[in-house]
């Protein structure tokens, strides 16, 4: 390719796709750097972001590449601020002809001003002291109980065969606190999991509840 005009239809199609994909907050600019730099923009979409139009000039980065002072002018995800206060995330690639000379560039400038403002809003209004919820969404109680048993397992941090009496008491206290024993036949599942009798289960559960009462007092 010797100049952009040879692939004009390709660039138009590509810009049509990118404009439809990214929407109105992303400016797309095609520079023809083989003509006068003062009028290098040959295609631009959403030019309201920087206030430019077809026939306007390029920026200082293009001049640096054309002058040879910068070998590789490609840049990605740079944050820039416009004169009217917009904050942009910008990327640029340069297009080279068959002889290795620069013939054009494509720039993508995303207006992230509103995104950053929303981020600040969320940071200011979300309660940082909030803890992660323990709610689990499942389709049936068997799966729910399995999830609760797995949570208790992680809470204690030991395999059932390695648990001490105190570990099993804590395991059961944790399940009781999460409401696991409200599920029908949950006691049988837990007894089998811990290899204990129902008498032991109820005994450990009562001990855990007494501790909760004592801590509350």
Question: Tags for this entry?
Answer:
five-stranded antiparallel beta sheet; single chain; 18% strand; 7 helices; 5 strands; alpha+beta; 217 residues
Characterize this entry briefly.
With 217 residues, this protein is an alpha+beta fold. 43% of the residues lie in helices and 18% in strands. The longest helix has 19 residues, at 198-216.
Description:
With 217 residues, the protein is an alpha+beta fold. The protein has two domains: 113 residues, PAS domain (Beta-Lactamase); 69 residues. The chain contains seven helices and five strands; from the N terminus they run H-E-E-H-E-E-E-H-H-H-H-H. Strands 2-1-5-4-3 form a five-stranded antiparallel β-sheet, sandwiched between helices. Helix 4 crosses helix 5 and helix 5 packs across helix 7. The model has no long low-confidence stretch (mean pLDDT 87).
Topology readout:
Layout: H1 8-22, E1 26-32, E2 41-45, H2 60-67, E3 75-81, E4 87-96, E5 102-111, H3 113-125, H4 141-156, H5 165-177, H6 186-194, H7 198-216
Antiparallel strand pairs: 1-2, 1-5, 3-4, 4-5
- The rounded distance between the terminal residues' Cα atoms is 83 Å
Alpha-carbon Rg, integer: 32 Å
Q: Which CATH architecture of the largest domain would you pick?
A: 2-Layer Sandwich
How helix-rich are the residues, as a percent range?
40-55%
The number of helical elements comes to 7
List segments where confidence is low: pLDDT < 50 over at least 5 consecutive residues.
Answer: none
The outline comes out as rod-shaped
- Classified in CATH, the superfamily of the largest domain is PAS domain
The multimeric state of the shown protein is single chain
User: What is the strand content?
Assistant: 15-25%
Secondary-structure content class? alpha+beta
CATH hierarchy class name of the largest domain: Alpha Beta
CATH-derived topology of the largest domain: Beta-Lactamase
Described by strand count, sense and barrel closure, the largest sheet is: 5 strands, antiparallel
Mean pLDDT comes to 87
SSE topology string: HEEHEEEHHHHH
Identify the strand order in the major beta sheet. 2-1-5-4-3
Estimate nothing, just give the exact number of structural domains. Answer: 2
Q: How many E-type strands?
A: 5
């Amino acid at each position: 390719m010797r100049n952009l005009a040879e692939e004009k239809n390709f660039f138009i199609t590509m810009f049509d796709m990118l404009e439809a994909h990214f929407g109105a907050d992303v400016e797309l600019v095609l520079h023809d750097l083989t003509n006068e730099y003062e009028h290098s923009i040959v295609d631009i979409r959403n030019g309201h972001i920087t206030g430019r139009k077809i026939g306007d000039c390029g920026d200082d980065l293009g001049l640096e590449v054309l002058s040879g002072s910068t070998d590789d002018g490609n840049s990605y995800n740079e944050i820039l601020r416009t004169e009217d206060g917009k904050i942009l995330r910008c990327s640029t690639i340069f297009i080279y002809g068959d002889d290795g000379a620069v013939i054009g560039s494509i720039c993508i400038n995303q207006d992230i001003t509103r995104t950053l403002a929303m981020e600040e809003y969320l940071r200011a209004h979300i309660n940082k002291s909030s803890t992660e919820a323990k709610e689990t969404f499942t389709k049936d109680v068997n799966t729910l109980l399995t999830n609760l048993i797995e949570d208790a397992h992680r809470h204690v941090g030991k395999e059932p065969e390695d648990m001490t009496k105190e570990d099993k008491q804590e395991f059961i206290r944790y399940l009781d606190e999460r409401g696991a024993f409200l599920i029908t036949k949950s006691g049988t599942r837990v007894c089998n999991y811990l290899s204990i009798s129902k008498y032991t289960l109820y005994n450990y559960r009562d001990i855990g509840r007494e501790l909760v009462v004592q801590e509350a007092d």
